[in-house]
Records
---
Amino acid sequence: MALLEIDDLHVGFPVAGGRVVEVVRGLTLRLDAGQAMGLVGESGSGKSQTALAIMGLLRKPLRITRGSIRLDGQELTKAPEEALRRLRGGAMSIVFQDAMSGLNPVFPIGTQLMDVLRTHRGLSGQAARDAAVEALEMVGIREASARLRQYPHQFSGGMRQRVLIAMAIACRPKLLIADEPTTALDVTVQAQIVALLHELRNKLGLALLFITHNLDLMAEICDRAIVLYGGRMMEEAPIDPLFDAPMHPYGRALLDCVPRLADTPGALHPIEGAAPMPGRLGEACPFAPRCGESLPRCTEQAPPELVFGPRRAACWRLVP
Ligand SMILES: Nc1ncnc2c1ncn2[C@@H]1O[C@H](COP(=O)(O)OP(=O)(O)OP(=O)(O)O)[C@@H](O)[C@H]1O
Ligand SMILES: [Mg+2]
């Protein structure tokens, strides 16, 4: 049994006429304990809504309309809010892009950290303080006991992100979801945060679901990745084969967009056309309108998910 098992997940919201607009459409995913999975795809492809669905944090009107999410065998889609609250910050936690939004500006960070430790590990007084110091040290914050008294605004952006990661790991979760954790930071700090996540994953045996636009950062930290488009999985593969030879035309297009150090200037190939609007998606392959290799049936019918050893891909071109 994998730590995280998602089967045929659909997330959507009702619109007029009894229709439901889906933003995640039939996602299946397995993540083993201690493994790191990347989730990539253009803006609007459904990455964050997938993360929020796992955490039980979808905002109305969005909700899970079909499918199953199991953490350690426990079904989350039907779990009562109280059980989800216990799991959040306990067995699973999430770090968002904007560290400021995850921290309360009016309380010192020590108070916020100790709050988490009280709620999820039943710690109070000196034990909570010690665990808070330990968590801050684990994320590379020096003079941790003195910094417990400081407020979020007294930390730099990168340091705030470290504090947020400390809060996320303080209860030793099995699963850490990081949704664009470095997007708001400058390049050197990004690399440091990614290195930190990598180190924590090894030290604590965390499973990591790493959501990003940055394929190079993803390659540094993840074992495998799922490429999403229009709420659907286009392909999934271990990092090296994915980068060497993406199987799906969208995977190829996405990798072509990424400037590489070795590239000659100007060798950038943006994907023509615009990302799809969720309400306009039919049953066809969502990428078909922008795909340079589409066949007539690509615009008529969803391609099946094909399995190729450790890889999966959904493309009519790959159907024998
Ligand atoms: N509250 C909402 N109501 C309706 N649609 C929403 C709502 N929030 C998000 N969406 C839509 O859901 C789709 C998926 O959004 P999601 O936030 O998961 O994208 P993403 O892949 O995380 O993109 P980004 O890279 O920009 O963060 C988008 O088309 C978005 O417009
Ligand atoms: Mg997002």
---
Amino acid sequence: MEQILRNFFLFLSKNKLFTKLAKKYGLRFGAGRFVAGETVENAAEVISQLNQKGMLVTVDHLGEFIDSEEEARNAAEECIEMIEKIARDKLDAQLSLKMTSMGLDISEELVMENMRRILDAGEEHGVFVTIDMEDYQRCGKTINIFKQLKKDYENIGTVLQSYLYRTVEDIEDLNQFKPNLRLVKGAYKESPKVAFPDKKDVDNNYKKIIKMHMLNGNYTAVATHDDAMIEYTKQIEKEYNIPRSQFEFQMLFGIRTERQEELVEEGYKMRVYVPYGNDWYGYFMRRLAERPANVAFVLKGVIGK
Ligand SMILES: Cc1cc2nc3c(=O)[nH]c(=O)nc-3n(C[C@H](O)[C@H](O)[C@H](O)COP(=O)(O)OP(=O)(O)OC[C@H]3O[C@@H](n4cnc5c(N)ncnc54)[C@H](O)[C@@H]3O)c2cc1C
């Protein structure tokens, strides 16, 4: 049953009509639990509250499936506005974004142009930018964009997903750039031709890439809510004397908040991924797919209103 629900929400997450309707009718149906609001101001308030609790942030202006150059340029503008807001309010925050929101499905030139503007603003204000990883179809292109930009910018990182067979090779290949990488299990529905179908294999590969990247001496963001993976990272830290300045934990806004606070109390760097904006639908559906138990929570919220 859980697998059926998971596939159902992943199917819904790609529906363009629902994406448009969701934008039009606002942040309802419980998405507010996972999304910091629709505006830069809403996001800044949430970031400030998290910073006060000792947490770092990466803020994501939600956006995917854009259809025009104009939309991509507007999305880049929003990112620059957020970077300026981070600097103005002295927030401890980085930026995350998706290549499709920058125009990946339109042209690579457009993406590069938008990214250079964002990275220039980031450089000016000391804000680091992480390129989120999307589905397999776009993985190779995203990594190539990252490689090109990394030659010119220090303030850029990206994400690798342990469910993909190719990821171990990507870790090895990207090592030449000494990159700051966020490591995740992977949130999209992929074919067994390209991704491990069994959770056990995804988890084992996750441990493998955490160890590889940390022992390569590269900055590692372990982005998971899974205690077993957090414990594994701590084990590697102790076994190989990895300084705490070389890695951090990351979790999503609204998920396992108490665990996030515990990690801060234990003295670890904890970064919360804070999404905001009106294009929240796809993000919200992927969160429901990850944990169908959240549906009950959302339904309670809707019925309770
Ligand atoms: C900061 C961050 C950034 C991300 N960026 C990307 C990205 O760019 N591209 C991408 O494809 N994916 C991204 N993801 C999503 C990621 O790929 C996974 O889909 C997601 O994190 C779920 O996997 P998991 O590692 O948390 O553990 P899972 O294997 O889903 O769960 C393992 C265990 O963790 C605990 N757990 C998980 N969720 C919850 C919950 N909601 N409440 C309580 N306990 C829970 C439970 O004990 C569960 O059994 C990101 C995730 C994070 C945290």
